[in-house]
Amino acid sequence: MPRAPSEKKAEAEKLFNKGMKLTEIAKKLDIPEGTVRSWKNRGKWASESPKNSRCNVANKKAESNATLQKKKRGGQPGNKNSKGVSKGKGNPKPAPPPDRTKHGGFVPVFMDALDEDEQKLVATVPEDTELQFMEQIQLFSIRERRILKAINKYREQNGDVSFADVTRFEDKRAFKDKEEEAEYDRRQKKKVENEEILPGKSYSIQTHTTNKDMIIARLEQELSTVQSKKTKAIEALSKYRMEKAKLESESAGNDVVDDWISAILGEEAEDSE
């Protein structure tokens, strides 16, 4: 005689509390797994079973993960990544920017701090815009000519390589004071007199060569850059002259109109008299 459903339900709950899985309970009691799962959900076995507390832990972890997914953007409570940074003011102790004024190109210039030669140079700078464009074009022309001369010099050289640079190496000796330096010179002179060493100072020279075609290619590239800048300066000068002529034409036209209006007003004044 088969057992009543209530007995199977009670036995299934006992097996579940002992840690048995739902599939194993269903197989042992010879009932569908869905029935056991239904009993478990309606009877809330998981919340009451101490043996299956790991399920509750999993549920809590799931809830915690859901909370983390809903967190706001930016720093979270307890986060110390931005500790020491004042709110809304950035880093109170920022790293200093790199020094870009070593060569003097970006140093602020004050007229009273210029030397005599620099003051003369400033005085020779033309105030007229057209003259400034002309001076710039002339400088580009000079630089263009120098690069062309350098290219021709390398092309006329024999061989495939050319000197790139020369480095001179010389040994130096440091002295504590003038007396020590004088003593060294005295001993060196004595060695020369005894023919232990040769007179004079020795040094070595190291030369570096490079492919002549590479030098020519680099110069030609720089020549193209200079010619491009020269062309832009010429275009700017042409545009400036056109704008200047246009303004002068408009001004002359306005003068004619003013004279015509004055003449009309003068005639009207005579008629009214």
UniProtKB/TrEMBL annotation:
Residues 175-250 form a coiled coil. Residues 78-92 have a biased composition (Low complexity). Residues 9-50 form the Terminase ATPase subunit N-terminal domain. Keywords: Coiled coil. Residues 31-106 are annotated as: Disordered. It holds the Pfam family Terminase_5. Transmembrane segments: none annotated. This is Terminase ATPase subunit N-terminal domain-containing protein.
